[in-house]
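Narrative of accomplishments. A recurring question from our advisory board has been how the design workflow behaves on a single, concrete structure rather than in aggregate. To address it, we present the structure tokens for one chain from the evaluation set, followed by the sequence designed for it. No filtering or post-editing was applied between the two.
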């Protein structure tokens, strides 16, 4: 209920929940012949089918009424103990989120021995351990593949993790930081300062940096625009800045496309991308193993000497 922006919905749900029980009780009592003397217990409704099949108005059995009244009492008890009436949390203050969290903690305790062997190993060494790679891949498929793909090669707006191009750095420590704390990448919009024609010229210059086809006549004014608006983040040579998450513009890796239209869209309207933090979802041991698996994708044969 905390997601509601108005308390009206809490009251609305409470009225529906309690009103349904009250209606059921009233209906049960209104249909009891022993509480309503004008009801003929063996009355004939007058409905006859096939000449001899008559619909009667027999009273509801007492046991049936008692059973449903008991169910109404149970419903009230459930609403008293558990959340179900608007914003009321129930005396037990139960929530599915708390139950899932408790089950996760219990499961983490059970699987902790599996990760003990990797705790003292450098991440680069963990990346080349067969058991750790299998665990890391499963963690990736369960938590990361939805965005980066089952092969970790990404898609539109989601980075490829299997190459050597890293927005925030590709060392084990940097990947660990990215997974643990998340990242918020932002390219600011320049539409208030750059005209579409100027953005198109800058796009031509950016394409030339990557060795893509470009209009040489527009590259010169495009460079002037680049030096004015883009050099602070992407650098004079366009090689980017991992500390700021500014991508390298001189390679063939394009998160949002390399066409002039795509680059102009990026310049004028900006881009925002969020990598969610996993520290509240995965344990430290799981994050280390996952980091090792991701690092190993772009460093399949590289090992770091252990001390």
């Amino acid at each position: 209920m905390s997601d509601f922006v108005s308390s009206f919905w809490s009251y609305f749900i409470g009225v529906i929940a309690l009103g349904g029980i009250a209606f059921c009780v009233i209906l049960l009592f209104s249909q009891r012949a022993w509480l309503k003397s004008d009801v003929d217990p063996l009355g004939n409704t007058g409905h006859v089918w096939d000449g001899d099949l008559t619909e009667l108005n027999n009273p509801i059995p007492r046991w049936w009424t008692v059973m449903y009244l008991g169910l109404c009492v149970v419903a009230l008890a459930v609403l008293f103990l558990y959340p179900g009436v608007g914003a009321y949390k129930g005396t037990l203050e139960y929530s599915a989120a708390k139950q899932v969290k408790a089950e996760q903690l219990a499961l983490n305790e059970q699987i902790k021995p599996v990760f003990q062997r990797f705790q003292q190993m450098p991440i680069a060494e963990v990346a080349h351990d067969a058991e750790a790679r299998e665990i890391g891949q499963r963690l990736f498929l369960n938590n990361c593949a939805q965005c980066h793909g089952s092969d970790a090669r990404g898609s539109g707006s989601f980075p490829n993790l299997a190459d050597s191009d890293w927005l925030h750095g590709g060392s084990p420590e940097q990947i660990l930081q990215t997974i643990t704390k998340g990242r918020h990448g932002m390219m600011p919009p320049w539409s208030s300062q750059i005209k579409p024609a100027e953005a198109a010229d800058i796009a031509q210059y950016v394409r030339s940096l990557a060795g893509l086809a470009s209009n040489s006549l527009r590259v010169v004014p495009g460079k002037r625009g680049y030096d004015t608006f883009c050099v602070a983040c992407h650098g004079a040579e366009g090689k980017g800045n991992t500390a700021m998450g500014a991508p390298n513009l001189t390679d063939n890796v394009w998160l949002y496309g390399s066409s002039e239209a795509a680059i102009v869209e990026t310049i004028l309207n900006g881009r925002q991308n969020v990598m969610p933090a996993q520290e509240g979802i995965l344990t430290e041991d799981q994050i280390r193993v996952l980091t090792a698996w991701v690092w190993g994708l772009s460093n399949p044969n590289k090992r770091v000497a252990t001390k």
